[in-house]
Amino acid sequence: MNSTDRIERQIHIKAPRSKVWRTLADAETFGDWFGVALKGKRFVAGEPCEGPITYPGYEHITWKVVVDRVEPEHLLSFRWHPYAIDPNTDYSHEPTTLVTFELEETSDGTLLRLVESGFDKIPAHRRAEALRMNSGGWDAQMTNIDTYVASH
């Protein structure tokens, strides 16, 4: 795939894979570092998960995903509508992107890889902005999970 279709990030987290996995795969904890209220929610393959975004300036948005795969201590993936921030727009007819987190144990911690793919299928009038905004968003989220793991 070309670079317009996907975002790829990785970060080395100095913590055991089991701890990084709990931070990633427990929906409530995910919400704490990601900026979405997911109290009482769970990530279950094939099921939707949603909650209000808590990040300043985006509180009017409901974060909505459909969990794709949950492979303990290895992979979590979900589908969503990227940069779907207009509460007056129905994005349900648009294709989704696939967000995949993969964990790999290292000698001194865990390598967390993130790939969000499928941007080439997003409608042309939204594609470039969704790719740009999510690209910057994932930069921030990689820092957020690293900070959260280190402080909890």
TrEMBL record:
Provide a GO biological process annotation.
methylation
CDD domains, sorted: SRPBCC_CalC_Aha1-like_5
What's one GO MF term for it?
methyltransferase activity
Keyword tRNA-binding present in the record's keywords: the answer is no
Q: Which Gene3D superfamilies match?
A: 3.30.530.20
Does Plastid appear among the keywords?
A: no
Q: Which UniProt keywords apply?
A: Methyltransferase, Transferase
Q: Tell me which InterPro entries the record gives.
A: ASHA1/2-like_C, START-like_dom_sf
Superkingdom in the source lineage: Bacteria
| Pfam family for this entry, one | AHSA1
The Activator of Hsp90 ATPase homologue 1/2-like C-terminal domain covers which part of the protein? 14-149
Family of this protein: Belongs to the AHA1 family.
Protein name in UniProt: Vanillate O-demethylase oxidoreductase VanB
Taxonomic lineage of the native organism: Bacteria, Pseudomonadati, Pseudomonadota, Gammaproteobacteria, Lysobacterales
